[in-house]
Amino acid sequence: MAFSAADLQRKHNLEGAPDPFPSLVESPQPKARTQSVQELDTESQSAFPSLASAAPAAVAAPKTAWAAARKQTPVFADTFTIGRIDLSNTGKDGKHATLGEVMKQVIAKYKVKLEGSANQKTGQTTFHIKADTQKELEKAKKSLQALLSPQVTLIINAPVSTIATIIGPKGATLKQIRDQTGVRVDIPPRNTVVPNGNGHTGQDDEEEEMTVPVTLSGPQPLALEAQALLNQIISSKTSKTTQRVRDIPAHILPFVVARKSVFQAAAGPDSVELSLNAPGREITVAGDREAVVRVIDSIKSTIEHYTNNLTSLKISIPKRQHRLLTGKAVDEIVTKAQCVVIVAKADESSDEVTIWGQSNDLPNGLSAVMAQANSQHIHEFPLPGPIAVSKQMLTYMTHIGYPRTLINGHPGVAVYAPEPSVVEKASILNIDIIGNKADVDSVVRKVSELMGKLLGATQEIQVDWLLHRFITGKHAKKLKQLHDAHNVLAIFPLEAAEQSTVLLVYDPFSANASPSPDEKTKHLEDVAKEILKLAKDAADVKSQTISVEKRWHEAVLGKGRTTLNAIIGEDKTLSIKVGAEAADPSGEDVIAIRGASTDVDRVVKEILTIVESAKNDEIVNSYSTEFDIEREYVGRIVGAQGAGVNKLRDQLGVKVDVSDEVDEKEKDGGKKKKAAHQKSKVKITGRKENVEEAKKRILAQIERLADETSEVLKIPSQYHSSLIGQSGKYAIRLEEKYGVKITFPRQSAENGEGKTREALKADEVLVKGGKKGVAGAKSELLEAVEFEKESNNILKFTVPNRAVARILGRGGASINEIKDETDAQIDVDKASDDSSLTNISVRGTKKAVAAAKAAIMAIADQVTEETSATVVIESKFHRTLIGAGGQGLKELVKNCGGPEDPKLQAGLIRFPRPGDAAIDEVRLRGEPKLVAKLKAELEKLAAAMRDRVVVAIDIPAAQHRALIGRGGQHLNDLQNRTGVQVQFPGSRSYGQVGEAENAADLKDVDAANIVKVSGSRAACEKALAELKDSVKPAAVEGPSSTVTVPVKFHHVISQQGGFFRSLRAYGVQVDHSALPQKSAVPLQPTPAEGNGSARIDEPEEEPPFKWEVTANYQDAEQGDSTWTLKAKDQAGLDRAQKQLKEAIEHAERMSHVGFLTLPDRSTFPRIVGSKGANVARLRNETGADITVSRENSTIVIIGSEKDILAAKDAILRMTSAPGGRPRRTHED
């Protein structure tokens, strides 16, 4: 029985292993089978090769295509099998093609030899294909597979991090896969990616990176090939991974943590990183994928082991001792006893403790737990008062960080305040103090002392929490003033808590805090009134609930509550509860707003607007349109990494999808094959008007692209840098102006073409864009080239090597000056060793080039024939020859008839530099006559310096300044007269002069007195004689005496330095063994409690003055200071002693200090008088010391009680206006 290809397709399932060479010999009627096959294709044997048996009985075989093929054997061959042939994608007009017709199409199109055979048992069809080239063979093979294989759709969940690699630069990788396999690859837009799209469940330990479903559509074998290529890319990018082990039981977690080294060893040589999230009972492992898997398996097996082998023991331990069984103590117990201790939560009343471990370890674990629980002394300090007062005290202590203060002051002691969860439920609040008993007792005393001060010192007031930010922000200065005036601290709760209770505390740590309960209450009430008044004036708070269906709540909240944050504003304090948060009895279709009235009204309006817009969006965003564009424009429309469509999305709020569309009728449709895949479909979704605008923009862009042209301009490479400009600014300006792309060649390759995407030569510039823009850019570029040709004239010439140094100048000064003056660019090439000339290139305008060349040649002409010479001079003499700032060399060149211009002098004499081999050789270069003179003069100077000696002389350091003179005048005169150099101690060259030859004679002399003289011996002797005559004999020390003076009298005696100035008039100097550290003016006493009201809200008639008297020296420093009086003669010393004795007696009489405070400073000029005349007169008349403040309106009077009263009365009389007019007062 014979079967056609269609019969084989319908009969067999065609599943199973492929058989590349199926045998058909088992058929009982081979001839009939051959005849049947030939009847299926009567047109040509070459179009449908025989499917008959391979038996030699087929005599007609030589007439087949294979027989003809033996004349010229193709070079390339391949054999492949298709499991199930699907002809549904072939043919036309709804009629499927036969297998023979398909093979005929492939043979005709790709010029290959093709043979096929089928296996009835396996349902496989094997094809053997031959071609002249490998390329044609691959094309024919893929075409046949595409035509005969079923169309399938595969989905690969690719991690988001690999999408960029799959797409490749500008879609290159994705395009390569599509071209290689002919499979359609669809990647959804980024904004449609759903988190956890990789299908991971909550129990999966993989890092939950978002994945993107990549869809492959095409013939089965080609789709599988594309799938393998994509999997290869994904695996190469995901060699690193992160996995987590979550929900580790609390009693097993410490055991797992203790085995960290075991897990790291499981990773082997690969690198992994383990991190612990203790609160979440989670371990994260990151690193090489294989190593991470090994470590995760090790952790899971460890958890499983402990889960199956641990048992527990429960005991009761007082709750206060639980603190000793947490934190590091758990790790210590695990290490010591291989057991874990779990205590009850802090807010639970249970005192149960559970010990986990293996059965044989539990006794040791119990012992370790009991030892740890009793390792330190614990004191539970109950906060006094009702629970409300206890909470207030705890809030204050927490606010000021008092527990931390106690810990810092008592190392080794731990102080624990109750947990917030405990505070809400407890009826008694305890502070746990743990440590050594002696230290704990000390801390307990401090806490008890603070609690005593806080009793009756707290008060709570209710201020709407929405106003807290306003009060603490705008009135922060006012709150500080209240604290300074009343010692009351206002503690506002955190804004997130939305609590309206404000705690007021009479600060016990304030320096002037009163222990009186009445005072505390009074100050608390005063501050409470002030804060409540601020709250009342701050804002009018109101609440409003609006009805909004639950389905619109997401629009109001926005992604990540961004829209809600925008509604509230940055500096606004508002409470907005959405849905269930509002806890409204009517249900969840509400939004509750609370805040300042104006803000609430604004928010309600904005929310309603957003809801209305969301309702409209639901209607208008359903609009979409589709249209086709040429595929060649897709890349430009989409943009690099989707930049083009993302821009449309951001600007117009539309979604743009671009997909390849293939006309089914054109698939493999003979001559129309070229048209396949040439069109791409664009779908835009969003508001109708926005969609139409986006379509308009895309079509306009395509129109511009269709108008695009390119032109290559021939521009010499020497002008490219000028046309590009610094950082490309000129080229960018042209691109933006004309809407074109300008490409310059990069560094040339070996073949002379630039290394750019376009094959450009070194002198080519590509301009691409619209025709009009290209023409404009071309015109402007060519104009710029002409300008550059005019301004970039290049002139090359040579100069003698000897003139190069002069042309360049020191540090390039000369050449830079020529550049600045001529605006030309000058390049000086380095001369070769065998050449006497140096090449110079000058670039610029014709005028600039000519001017620069003239200036350079002028310098070169000045340099005549040069000679060089060398003078050997010891390096120790170099500094002296050079002189300060090179002045010595300048004078030397000038004296030898050389040039005076420093530029021309440069290079004549060169001293060796540090690192030179010949450190004693001085090189001369220049005109022969000048070089000869310089050499002779240098040798003469060197000979003189070799005869130089250094002699020292003892001159008291106190006389050095006089010998040097103002500006060194005396010293310079001496050196000029004698021809020596004199170095005084401390000068920079003192140590460089060298050791004096008579240093041994002066070894016992103070080094500060030794002066060095250097020069010829005769000159040194002459200078020493003059210096000796100039030295004055030491002055005879005058008489001196010491007087003991109390330190507290110092300021009164010194009279701000006037006393010492008067002693210097007698020739007496004073030294002190000690000086006072406190101010000369005593501090004004603070007013006594109850001496008047300082409240600004209780006006009182202002007194004309304020008078306060206190004892002098009561807070003064104690002790004595020794005053040493040094005089020129005995008479001056006697007068100074007498004056000091009277001053001490006067200071003893200054027993009182009066503080006279006037309402303002308007009368101070009258009191002081011209240059202090009135104050001086009052001092003489009353005997009191009077100090008028420059900072406030207080006058300080010091003296006996009688004297200060007299001075006060005199001052008050002066403040009265002349003629009996009343004193002017200041009214608020």
TrEMBL record:
Residues 150-235, 309-374, 540-612, 621-703, 707-786, 791-861, 865-943, 947-1032, 1150-1216 form the K Homology domain. InterPro entries: KH_dom (IPR004087), KH_dom_type_1 (IPR004088), KH_dom_type_1_sf (IPR036612). Residues 32-45 have a biased composition (Polar residues). The keyword Repeat applies. Residues 1-47, 186-207, 661-680, 1077-1101 are annotated as: Disordered. Residues 670-680 have a biased composition (Basic residues). One of its GO terms (molecular function) is RNA binding. It comes from the Eukaryota. It comes from Roridomyces roridus. This is K Homology domain-containing protein. Keywords: Repeat, RNA-binding.
